[in-house]
Amino acid sequence: MKGMREFPDRKAKIAKRYDKWSTIYDKFDAKAPLLGRYGAKWRIMAVRELKGCKGTVLDMGCGTGKMLLLMAKECPSATVIGVDISEKMVNIASEKAKKSEYRDRIIVKVMDCTSMDFDDESIDCAFASYTFTSATDPEKIVVELSRVLKRGGRVVILDWGRPICGPMIILYPLLGAIAYLFGYTRISINVKSLFDACEKFRLVKEIRFFGSMGYILVYSKV
Ligand SMILES: C[S@@+](CC[C@H](N)C(=O)[O-])C[C@H]1O[C@@H](n2cnc3c(N)ncnc32)[C@H](O)[C@@H]1O
Prior knowledge:
The chain is built from 8 helices and 7 strands; from the N terminus they run αααβαβαββαβααββ. The chain is of the alpha/beta class. The chain has one domain (10-221): Rossmann fold (3-Layer(aba) Sandwich), CATH 3.40.50. Strands 3-2-1-4-5-7-6 form a 7-stranded mixed β-sheet. It binds S-adenosylmethionine. The site of S-adenosylmethionine has 22 residues, from helix 1 and strand 2. S-adenosylmethionine is lined by residues 14-15, 18, 61-63, 66-67, 83-86, 89, 112-114, 129-131, 134-135, 183.
C-alpha cells in the first residue's frame, strides 16, 4: 500500500535463498570442509532412529530430498512425505524420488511447516535435518508438529547448536556466522529447549557429535 513502510517477509526471503541454493546445495553439502566428510555419516546415524516406523513418515524441510530415499529404505512399510517452502528445492527432491526405486512411497510437496496441510494426528513419525535452525518460527513448527503427529509418534531431529563442552566452544561463533551467511541458519537456536517446553513431547534419546555441536534428538509424543 502506498505510503506504508514495507518490511521484507523473512519466510519468503528464506524460500528465495534456498531457491538460489538449490542448484549447488548437494554439491556444496558433499564437498564443504568438515561437513562433507562427516555429514553423510551423521545423516545415516539420524535416519536409523526411524527404523521400524510405519504408516506416514514426514520429512520437514526436506530440501533437495537428501534424506527421503534413506528414509524410504529404513522404513520399508511407510509412505514418506517431504515438505519444504522452497519450490526449487522441492523440484529437485521430486526428481530424485521419481528416479528412485521407492518412487511409489515418496510424496514431495511445497508446504510451510509452521502451518501444515495435514489433519490432526495423521502423521506417524517425523524427521527434520537442519530445518529448525533454518526456519523463521521454529517454535511454531514444534506446536504444529504436536498437532499433526499421532500419540506415541516418534520425532527425530538432526541439527547444530551451541556446544556444551570441548574445543568447539571456541570455533562456534565463527561457524555460526558462516552458517547464517549461507543459509540464514541460526545455530544459536536451542531446539531442545523448544521441544522440552512443549508438554506434548518427551525426550527419548540424545546423541552428541562434532565436539557436542551436532546433535540428534529423538522425541516421542505423549
Ligand atoms: C539447511 S536446509 C536442510 C535441507 C534438508 N533437510 C537437508 O538435510 O539437506 C533447510 C531447509 O528448510 C527449509 N525451510 C525453512 N523454513 C521452512 C518452513 N517454515 N517450512 C518448510 N521448510 C522450511 C528451507 O527451504 C531449506 O530447504
